[in-house]
Structure formats: C-alpha cells, structure tokens
UniProtKB/TrEMBL annotation:
Binding site for substrate: W182, D347, D348, R424, K457, W458, D459, M460, N461, C506, D528
Organismal lineage: Bacteria, Bacillati, Actinomycetota, Actinomycetes, Kitasatosporales
Presence of keyword Hydrolase: yes
Enzyme superclass (EC): hydrolase
Organism from which the protein derives: Streptomyces variegatus
UniProt GO MF annotations: alpha-galactosidase activity
Name of this chain's protein: Alpha-galactosidase
Keyword terms, alphabetized: Glycosidase, Hydrolase
Domain of life: Bacteria
Amino acid sequence: MPNIAHDPEHRLWVLSGPGSSYVLHLDDGHRLRGLHWGARLTLGQALSLLDRPQPGRRSFEDPADGTLDLDTAGAMRYAHAGVQVRFPDGVRDLEPHPAGEEVLHHEDGTELVLRFADRHYPLTLESHYRLRTGTDVIERHLVLRHTGAPTDGTITIVRADSATWVLPRLGEYRLSQARGQWCAETQLNRTPLPYGETVLTSRRGTTGHQANPWAMIDDGGADEVHGSVWSCALAWSGSWRLTAQRLPTERATLSAGFGHDPITWELAPGEELATPVCAGAYTEGGFGAASRLWHRHVLDHVLPYPEELRPVLYNSWEATEFDIDVRGQIELAEKAAALGAELFVMDDGWFGARTHDAAGLGDWTPNPDRFPDGLTPLIDRVHDLGMQFGLWVEPEMVNPDSDLYRAHPDWVLHHPHRRRTEHRNQLVLNLARPDVAAWLHGRLDELVSKNAVDFLKWDMNRPFTEAGWPDAGSDPDRLWIDHVRNLYALLDRLRADHPGLRIETCSSGGGRLDLGILARTDQVWTSDNTDALDRVEIQHGFSQLYPARVMGAWVTDSPNPYTGRRVPLDFRFHAAMNGVLGVGGDLNRWSEAELGRAAEHVTAYKGVRHLVQLGEQHRLRHRDDRDLNAVQYVAPDGRETAVIALRTARHFGHHDPALPLRALEPAARYRDSVTGVVHHGAILLTHGLQLDLAADDYASALVHLIREPA
C-alpha cells in the first residue's frame, strides 16, 4: 500500500510511492509548504529538512513565494496564487487556518485530506492527495465550500487550481509541453523556462489542439534514458490553464486547474466546488521512464477497460465522404473484412438531411433515402462478416438547418443582442442545460439500443463562441464547468446502460485529449492528418504522456488526402502500427496487390498488438534524428519485444545504424519470429539490432523477437 507518514508535533506529512516522496509541512504561519518532491524519504529524513536554514525575508519579497503547496492570494505574496476568491464585501485576501485532517482508505490506495477554514469568512478548503498502490503518481484536487447562512451572500471563485506543485531548486529549469494546431497536434516542445509566469491554456471550451494540459520539468540535462523529471497532468476536457512559474529567487512551481480568465463561479451558501484531478509524478530515468509511468497510470487507473485489446477498424469516410448509401457501405464492409478488420465504422452523412455539412446535424435518425429500411440491413451484414459496427456522431453540435434547431433555437450557446457565430455551419448545444443533457441521453440511448451499435466515434468539431446562457440566472459562467460535467455524466450513464458500448473521443482530430475524457472513452482519434511522415512527429509527442493503447492511427490513401504526399503502403502501415491500427483509405481504388499486402500487415499487427497496446514503450531514437525513428515495445513479462523502425531517407549511401534495444535480459536469446534468426540479449542491448531496410526513401520494418526458453 502507498505510505502516508505523519508527525503531528511538527505538522509534517510524507506521501510516498514506490520510488518517490512528496513532503508537506504546516509552518508557524499555518501555511502549507511543499518541502520535498523527489527521491523517496523516510519520516526521519523528511523531518531533518526542518533543521535546514530557511531564507530570510528580503525587501518586497516573501520567502514563502514559490514554496506553498496550497497557494492562496493574500498578504505580501505576489507570486502566482492557485486559489483566488472575492467575498461579498469585496475582500480578496484569504487567510486559511488548519481545520483538521483525515486519511481515507480506498481499495487501491489511501488518500490524505487536509482541511482549512478562512479565519473570518464562511469558506473552507479541502486539499486532497490520493496515492494508489504501485505508482508514484499522486492525484490531487480541491474542494471549496461556502459554509455561511442563506443571508451571507455568494462568494466569487476567481481561480481554483486543482494543485500547485512545488519544485526543488534545480539551478536550471526546462519546460516540456505539447503544442499544435488542427492537423498538427501534440508536437513536443522543449524550451528553457523563462522567469515569470508561463501560461499554457485553452479558452475554447475543449482541451484544444493548440496545447495539452500537461507539463514536464527537468534541469535541462535529462534525455530519453537519464535524468530526473517532474510532471503533472490535468484531468479536464474543457477550458483549462497551467502556469509554470519561475521566480528570481530560483523557486519554481507548476499549477493547473480548470477554467480560464476572466471566467468566475459563484458559490452560494451551502454550495461546494470540487475541482478536477491534477496528477503529478517524479521519476528518474529520463523522459522515457516518465512516459512509461504515465502510460501505466492510464492503463491501471484511468481507462474503463484497460485490459482490452482494441480492434483493427475500418472507417468509410475517405472512401465515400457524404456519398453514402446502404449498398456502398456493405461493399466496403466486405472488403474491410477481407483485410482482417474487426470493426466497421460508418462516418458522417448517414442521418437526417446530412447530404452535406450544412444540414441535419442534431437529427440522429437514418436518412430514409439512403437507408430506406433503417440501419439494420447494414448492421446485420457487418455482424455476419464477423465485425463490430460503429457510427460517427457529433452530439454536442447542431446545424441551424436542422429540425432540432428549428424546434429549440434557445438550446445553443448564445448571448442576447449578439450574432450567433457559425463555424463549419455549426452551433454548440448548451449541454449545461439539464433539459438538453436529458434529451441528448435519450436520443443516443435510443440510437444505440435500436441499432445494435457497438462503437461510437464521438466527435466535437468546434469551440465555444458566444458562450452565454440567458436563462442561467446570476451565474451564467457556470456553463463552462457544467457543460463538461454533464458530458461526463452522459458518457458515464450511456456506458452503464450499454456495457458493451465502446467510444472513441474525437474533436477535429486530437482537440479533446486529456485524462478526464480518457476515463470515459476507449481510444482517441489522434489527428485528421493521416500523412505517415507527419504522424511520426504527432505520435512522438502523443507518447510523452498517453499510451499507444488509446492512440488511433489510420492507413489512408497515397497521395495523402490532406498533404498530397506519396508514401509507400508498407511505411504507412508501419507508422500506424504504433497505435490502435485502423484503415481509412478508399478500398474501392486499392489494387489487388495492395489489398493483399494490407491483409498481410493487418495479420502482422495482430501478432504484436498485445505488445504495442499493453507493453512498455521505449523510444529508441532521438527526436531530432529526422531520418530514422524507431520504437520498441516490451511485454510485461519480458518474453517478447517488437521494434517498429521508420526511415525517411538514407544519405550518402550510409548504412542504417544498428539500434541498441532496451529492457531485455542480457543472458537470454531472442528469436526473430519471421526470419528465425537468434540474437543474444547482451548483443542487442549493446551493439544493437541490425536493420535490413531497403535503400529507398520511406523504408520501414517490423521486427518481432521472442525469448528462447532457458
């Protein structure tokens, strides 16, 4: 079990996982400080930190800045404050005093709850720290409660970050993050952390393509296999902000929470605000070890069905776009089944008046001209072919040209006296409204129940605009939270009603990717950009925090529909094998040779799928080596490993370098499942796996090694 050690006399707590500790201390001013986040300490070792000399106050500087785990605005503190409020009389300073503590025991770990109450005003704060068995990830959140009488008025919550993580003094600080845009998501960016506050954020109502709610900090010297890394990730699928702060005193913090400036929330007497989880971890062993820790955390403690191997899917969108009919979909399903696909997904265009992207969104009934007998004939044929059946939906959106909007124009986000901005011919349904949430659950429940749907590709193609709710009363900003909470409740209820249903989260590609949505879905549509070369970069950044088990990766046509790049079929398949393999090309245009080769690749992927989706991932090449990329996957028991190598170009006739592998037994021997060649583990670890790639550009290979019996 995780360890929570406490010394009541010194008001100190040590929260420890298998390899790390986070130390908290209430100082003489009743301020909760973060004394240590790093290698595992005993209680005695942690107590010795109190004997170390503390910096004194300098003019205009409070030495508490950059050291507070619960960082509230007030007094002489001018650094970033994770909790900011405004009381009814206009006072903004908080003076929280300790009000108790509790250790909660869960089936999979323990949780420390530290309680505080403002010295004068009726506001309490709870700071939660949950430690799960077998992991160094700590999950944190806050609960703010208005404890006053009905006549006390509302308290405005200006900011409520889920956690502020106090970093040790490192000398130098480097920030790792994921940046991007549509069709260029999750690109890894590493830069020195400047002095001041670096804010990563989304103000769009969704997680966003432009940034992702996680960050990693190191001292500038860590690489893939060496160095200490401090990281945190926010489990929230709406607007968010993450502040990386570096002070002139060389203290640094990471603070993350939901919402964005200038959005606030009103807390009425008797109400509480619980923030989403912000998880954090300290690891040694470079960025590779940090990634593997997060991958294992997602698999063990986030995903609904982590042990499931995700099926190979075929999606018909690029073959048909809006030109859909039952006969054409059945023909594609038959070709997909011949490739070895296990899930057939019909994308946009099957419902209402949706013959183009300007009509029908919100009317979730089959188009009677295209499906005169409903979806049943298609679904029955897909099931007869041995595949599951999936549908694309975009439940949170509506076209103005739809029966739904004509009946309920007030159901969308809007402000009075302001235009309703359309993007992609769409408006956003106000899911914060209980009546909208209830209607949407009923419609989706009926759709899934009546049509034997196994899988939903749940899309969300536009951000919030005119985010108003005229009937919300005194707190219209609450929609930014309640939309996401009602989305979560809808997904939870739908899955409870239909235990066999699986869901892919999509938002114009990877625009809604975070630990919060992953707790309710099974995989992610990574990007609308399926260009295999671009995907190498996107998938590298994706893998920093998220496991291959959730990363949807398609093989599509060449030239690529988005970039126009021509890439060989083998390279396209090998790139997509680094995640949940899918095929999205127009099979009607593929030659017999291409279809046959594709079937071989699908079979090969199924042979290593358990390694890719459930094994440990090791990135073998430095990301700045643009020509050769390789990733290794190792079975949890170490008996198998797979290597996927992708080389875009070979210069000056040089041979490809051998790839030193990782996580093998030096004394063991490993047999290539295809060639039968046997390798010594010690040689693979030191001298490396010799690649036999073609001399052409865009050469690739999959190597599957099995450990020989002792």
